[in-house]
Structures are given as structure tokens and as C-alpha cells.
Amino acid sequence: LPMTGDLHTHSTFSDGSLKADILPRLAARAGLTQLAISDHDSVRAVRYGYEHPEAEGVRLIPATELTAFDPVRGRRVHLLCYWPDPESAALAAHCDGMAARRNAACAQSARELEQIYPQFKARDVLERMEDGGVLFKSAIMQVLCEYGLADGIYKETYQELFGTGRGRVLHEPAYENLDQVLETIRAARGVAVLAHPSVYKSMELARELAAEGRIDGVEIDHPRNTEEDKKELHALARAHGLIVTGGSDFHGRNAGRARPLGMCRTAGEEIARLEALAQKRRQR
Q1: Which of 134, 188, 192, 268 could form a disulfide with 84 if both were Cys (CB 3.0 to 4.6 A apart)?
Q2: Residue 233 belongs to what domain range?
Q3: pTM of the model
Q4: What is the full DSSP assignment across 172-212?
């Protein structure tokens, strides 16, 4: 098989619906040779990648998707971090901090939902966080769906309850400053890739980070990147020698629409570049 991978997927270590050990099976069936289980702000996902270097004939690339805040534009930013040191104190501090804040925000949402839906109890969602130790809005929505109280994970009920800026029970955790998160990736000797720039309207930021040499790559083949942005990202990557990655952003059933694992991919030569850079950093 020619080398090809899906380098952006999620499992129950964060807000995906499937356990991590099922993802390599789907990757193998999709004809992939490499897979990154890149759960949000998760050292557990990173460790899983190191502990299972190969599964179902598919090589696992240790990864996590770190959340940051761009204070200049007042927007969230996602950074994919590949091959970080799983024992990095900086990475652990980031992930522990995000876990505590996410849990506090979702616990508050769950308490408020008890007042709206008498059949719903906050304790009912606790078992949904045993793999990752973190509570996500999608876990709350799963319980609401199962109790017949919601129309789907990310449909109208979700917008009413958790819609950006207007949700009835929305509580957002505070996110680390972008500079701090880039420093965390550097301290963990990871490879930094700017995730799906179209999603949070991060093209201006992509230009800045590329020009300043603060990212190693950009994610281009992604279901939510626009054709216009993809074109510019390819030009940016050529101009600044950036690694080009692709990934489906797979979440299983916890998605607004059908997005199978492997629908977006990273080419073999780009995976080789990623690995070579990671190796170089590890030897330092």
C-alpha cells in the first residue's frame, strides 16, 4: 500500500463517539497506512499512540489537538501537535488545566439542564467521561438524545442550549493564549500544525504564523476548509516550506453530518517529512 494517512481524528478520549481501538480498524478498511488519534487537549491520546505503534496493520502517530485563543482577533484556534514527549510537564499542565475548566463549565451546564428537564440528572453523564476524564457538551447531548429530549447531537436542540453566544446553558471554558500554547508544543518537542484555518476564520493568523516561522505545517485537506482558503494555504506552504496535512476530523456519530474516517488524507511524502522533523526534535 502507498503510504497515506488520516491525521485528524477523535475518540472517547475527548468528544468522539468511538473508543480509540476501533479507529485503526476503520482506517485499515479505508486503505490507510497511518492514523493520528488527535483528541482535544489530551495526553491520554498521545500516550495511546506511543503504546500502540501499530494496530490492524495501521501505524499510529501520537497526537493531540490543542485549543488556544487568538487575542488579536478574539477567536479560538486549534493546533495539531504530533509526536510530543508524553512525559512533557508543559503538555501535562496544559491538558490538566483544560480538563478542569471544561469539567467545571459542563458541570454548570448540566446543573442548569436539570431545571429545564426533570428527567435529566447531571450524574447521568459522568460515565461518558471515563476514557478521557473530561466532560464535553456532546456527552451531555448523547444523554438528552437517549432520553428523547433532543433531536440529535448537533441539531436544533443543541443550538438552543449551546449555540455560540446565545445558548441557554452555554458556559465556555477559558482557553490558553495562543503564544502560550505554541510554547507548550515547543517545550514538548512536538510538531505544530495549524488545524482547519477556515473553521475559525484563521487565514490572517495562518499568514502571520507562517511568515514568523512559528508553525511547522498547515492542515489543508479538511471537510470544512473552503476551496479558496485551500488554494492560498497551498501557496503559503510552498512559500514557507510548511508540511501539508489532511484529516477528516472524525468524531463518529458526534458530528453534524456524515464524515467517514479517511475522507481527507495526508500524502506519504508529507508524513515522512513530519516524522523526520519529529525525530530531529527528539534527538535535541
Answers
A1: 188
A2: 4-94+174-283
A3: 0.97
A4: PPP--BHHHHHHHHHHTTPEEEE--TTTTT-HHHHHHHHHT
